[in-house]
Specification:
Elements (H helix, E strand, L loop, with lengths): L12 E7 L6 H9 L6 E7 L6 H6 L6 E5 L6 H11 L4 E4 L5 E2 L3 H11 L5 E9 L5 E3 L9 E2 L1 H11 L9 E4 H7 L10 H10 L4 E12 L12 H18 L2 H13 L1 H14 L3 H14 L2 H15 L1
Parallel strand pairs: 1-2, 1-4, 2-3, 6-10
Antiparallel strand pairs: 4-9, 5-10, 6-7, 6-9, 8-10
């Protein structure tokens, strides 16, 4: 395939890929980056002490745009992202993931979007879902989400659904946003990406590219499938929501509480009950403490009972 020449008026971009035991999916992920129609990028890859042959594969790559690094010990996702952000040299930083595949126009789509919308702090694209065999299982269905999302609109979406992007692989962040809010919170294990989005949205509009630019892989080995991480997820999400509630106006704060009680807090409440029923009383107590410190347990219990009655 003959690649398009880079347009002179388009800015450059850094693509950053954290790798840890990428397995069977890493090669396709890397190749999808190298085969982009937009070619003016640097590609930073940081291996977090892989033990499955990923590092040996990466060492064989010869593309001059690749900057290959390896940690001396395993550091975790958000440390790796921060290190690559600090070492990158572009005004746009495209986050990437070892499981997923870019469509050929992905990088061009992000670069051209930010060129047309310089006020945006970070953008995310729609995405299609594939399984572990690369088969398409779900295509993006357009909705009414606007291309430019205000602080208020972002807050409402976050209160109801959590992270607006839902992943790191379909996200591109500007250097000016990092300069304003800082890097990822490395104390977080799960929700630092959500935290970053909320921090950026306090100061910048959010951009949404209304077409699929990546294929997101859904498979059984992903971290998000491991139940032991739910308690971290709840703890960190509640930290993010506390920050979000702190910068929206009073009417939006009230609406946000309602949305949280309807969906997110309801889900966390059911995790608490499930832990209790399974005899994991220590875990149930942790959920109870987190929820009671964030909201009224009486109100959450009332909402849960209403939900149960509706299902009868």
């Amino acid at each position: 395939m003959e690649l398009k020449k880079v347009k002179d008026n388009l800015p450059d971009i850094s693509i950053i890929l954290p790798v840890y035991n990428g397995g069977d999916f890493l090669k396709a992920s890397v190749e999808s980056v190298l085969q982009q129609t937009f070619q003016n990028f640097e590609f930073l890859i940081l291996d977090d002490r892989s033990t499955d042959g990923s590092w040996e594969y990466l060492q064989q790559l010869t593309d001059e745009r690749i900057v290959l690094m390896r940690n001396e010990s395993n550091k975790g996702l958000f440390y790796n992202l921060n290190e690559m952000i600090k070492k990158s040299g572009s005004k746009l930083i495209k986050l990437w993931a070892q499981d997923d595949i870019m469509y050929p126009e992905c990088i061009y789509g992000f670069v051209s979007f930010h060129l047309a919308n310089p006020e945006v702090g970070f953008s995310y694209s729609a995405r299609d879902i594939i399984n572990d065999r690369g088969e398409l299982v779900k295509s993006y269905k357009p909705d009414d989400t606007p291309e430019i999302i205000s602080k208020e609109k972002h807050a409402l979406i976050s209160f109801e659904y959590g992270s607006i992007a839902g992943n790191i692989a379909n996200v591109c962040i500007t250097r000016k946003a990092f300069d304003k809010v800082g890097l990822y919170n490395e104390q977080m294990k799960i929700s630092a990406d959500f935290d970053m989005q909320v921090r950026i949205a306090e100061y910048f509009p959010v951009g949404f590219i209304r077409r699929s630019l990546i294929k997101l892989r859904d498979h059984e080995k992903q971290l998000s499938r491991d139940a032991k991480y739910y308690i971290y997820h709840v703890k960190e999400d509640l930290q993010v929501y506390h920050h979000l509630l702190g910068y929206v106006n009073d009417s939006l704060k009230q609406e946000g509480r309602k949305l949280l009680r309807k969906k997110k807090l309801m889900f966390y409440y059911t995790l608490m009950l499930k832990s209790f029923r399974q005899g994991n009383y220590d875990l149930a107590k942790q959920y109870y403490t987190l929820l009671s410190n964030f909201d009224s347990m009486l109100m959450l219990t009332y909402n849960y009972m209403k939900y149960c009655v509706k299902r009868l």
